[in-house]
Design a protein that fits this description.
single chain; alpha+beta; D-amino Acid Aminotransferase, Chain A, domain 1; 9-stranded mixed sheet; globular; binds pyridoxal-5'-phosphate
Length: 356
């Protein structure tokens, strides 16, 4: 491709993928960097170069005022050697919605997708082929003008880094315990809860830490105004499987619109389930549990695909499902999506993008 500059790039030889991959710890040889400079007319030619540190001013806007957005998706190597991405256009569209909300420049779909494919092609030996393994793709954008004072930046860096990852649950697909909190809130409507922006995650750390101290792995967030309606979990969207309905909270502006969430809704519709996006109160969940109407709860997100909820605590109520066996529908969805991503199941929605 002639619209990418290669900076001292040599083809990888002898790539050694570490045996025990810890999620997010290992990075490939190269990364993509594309600079935006208002004074130079906007986005510059993308550059593929060695994965390396930045030299950035301590006054860079991002450190002080938080103009930072990111996204996350995966690439898979199929048994026949083909390399596939799962709905990458949806991640770039979402990144552009985040950019718009935070006064950051939008990306051109074709350039960005093209550059991502070139980077993955160059780094393909880094894609692990073992079952459940893949390469996690982390696009990132931030303002780096050296300036103290609240204003949108004129200079941005867009980066794509790649991290080889193993299965999210190395010991197999196991249910997780989660804690519904009314002590803190994650995001408020008309705020930035529907953007993948750095500050949202900093704001969630304390609640997460306190949940862990109580033995729960994640926080289930309630709405910021009444702490009555369910929103989402940590970095996952949430689904409640009732006897006659599968419910996921509707996107009211404070919930991150997950690509996995969107895909699960499509699959459930296709399977003939009564799937609804609506407001759902935590009390409705407790009542459903007490009457035996609530069959299972699961979360959805790129990293784990599906997380089955084994236990949910809200105030003094502990709703127990199973800490051994994941729910039936969650398991079925997990196997379906995994199959589509690894090319062992039919991609009837045309979700996969292949890298030639
Ligand atoms: C990324 C994320 C999700 C899941 O989105 P996917 O596109 O399915 O990975 C859900 N909630 C939050 C807060 C997130 O950051």
């Amino acid at each position: 491709m002639n619209n990418i500059n290669y900076l001292e790039v040599e083809k990888n030889t002898d790539v050694e993928i570490p045996e025990n991959l810890v999620f997010g710890k290992n990075f490939t040889t190269h990364m993509l960097e594309m600079n935006f400079d208002q004074a130079k007319g906007g986005w510059q030619t993308p550059v593929i170069k060695k994965f390396s540190d930045f030299n950035i001013s301590p006054a860079a806007l991002v450190f002080h005022y938080g103009q930072a957005i990111f996204d996350g998706l995966k690439a898979y190597k199929h048994a026949d050697g083909k390399i596939a991405l799962f709905r990458p256009d949806k991640n770039i569209e979402r990144m552009n919605r985040s950019a718009k909300r935070l006064c950051m420049p939008e990306l051109d779909m074709e350039t960005t997708l093209g550059a991502l494919k070139e980077l993955i092609k160059l780094e393909q030996d880094w894609i692990p082929t073992k079952e459940g393994h893949s390469i996690y793709i982390r696009p990132l954008m931030f303002a780096y003008d050296p300036f103290i004072g609240v204003k949108p930046g004129d200079q941005y860096k867009f980066i794509i880094m790649l991290s080889p990852v193993g299965p999210y649950y190395p010991e197999g697909f196991k249910p997780v315990p989660i804690l519904a909190t009314d002590k803190y809130v994650r995001a408020v409507r008309k705020g930035v809860g529907d953007c993948k922006t750095a500050g949202n995650y900093a704001a969630s750390l304390l609640a997460q830490q306190e949940a862990r101290q109580e033995g729960y792995t994640q926080v289930l967030w309630l709405d910021a105004i009444e702490q009555k309606y369910i929103e989402e979990v940590g970095t996952m969207n949430i689904f409640m499987h009732f006897k006659d309905e599968v419910v996921t909270p509707m996107l009211t502006g404070s919930i991150l619109p997950g690509v996995t969430r969107m895909s699960v809704i499509d699959i459930l519709k296709d399977w003939g389930y009564n799937i609804t996006e609506r407001m759902i109160s935590i009390q409705e969940v407790v009542d459903g549990y007490n009457t035996g109407n609530l069959l299972e709860i699961f979360g959805t997100g790129t990293a784990a695909i599906i997380s089955s909820v084994g236990k949910l605590k809200y105030k003094d109520t502990i709703m127990e499902f199973s800490d051994e066996h994941p729910g039936e529908l969650g398991t079925k969805l997990y196997e379906e999506i995994l199959g589509i991503q690894y090319g062992t199941k039919e991609d009837k929605f045309g979700w996969m993008t292949y890298i030639e």
